[in-house]
Give the backbone structure.
Amino acid sequence: MNELDAAGITDPALRASYVACRRLNAHHGRTFFLATRLLPARARPAAHALYGFARMADELVDNPEPGTDPAAELDRVGAMVDVVFAGGTPDDPVLAALSDTVHRYGIAQDLFDAFLRSMRMDLKPAEYATFTELGEYTYGSAAVIGLQMLPVFGTVGPLADAEPGAIALGEAFQLTNFLRDVGEDLDRGRLYLPLTELAAFGVSRELLERRRADPRIRAAMAYFVARARAVYRRAEAGVPLLRPESRPCVRTALTLYEGILDEITALDYDVLTRRAVVPKTRRLVVALPAFAAVWARETLGAGRRLRS
């Protein structure tokens, strides 16, 4: 069944807005898009809308159009978010789909405000002394994504019980991004690995900027990888609190994203001159059993409904 039909989205303009978000997800969110295919069809449009909003804001900061002011663009997006939560529907297709999604699922505005605050933090060269100092950025840029997705996933008990796992889910993915993209982030004037943690291994920002293999850098990266794996364990503990039909999506995303840490290790922690990528074959090996189970669930379920 078409996922827009399954979600009961019938208005032509709104359907076009959701299709635009889906295209963004398919183009930019390779691992996330694959995982969202494992959600029930009715839930996929909301996942695309939430991803589309996050990608749109992120692109304004990381890849601004020539001649534009990223700060002003973020302010414009923030004003449209205010319109959404005031009950209006912005002209922007991504925000139109977002408006429908947040009202369908009761997602709170403060999660989007926190996200935009973190995007504004990226407008200037960034570095953080400690994980505590990094916490505001990580919460706004990652933890809130898990919290936004939680109503879409659905839970078997009170939503609040599943929130720690959802927060850990976003943080695990973001810590993985920080490790994979150290070199790319340095090019943008950013360093997300806390300076005091790096200094414990004798690593400074200047040493990283030399882009040379160094045993001190390898030791620091190994430490950060181990720390990130511990966050994955917290995220995994929250999966049983989700509705059963959403668990294959989240488990697959966790496995694939943690696979980036495996690739970093396989590169001997060289994150300055190389980019760790999970091979397509491994993504398929991980995802295919889950796809088979989802196909059986939806196909057999549809058959039972037709016979009833």
Summary: The radius of gyration is 20 Å.
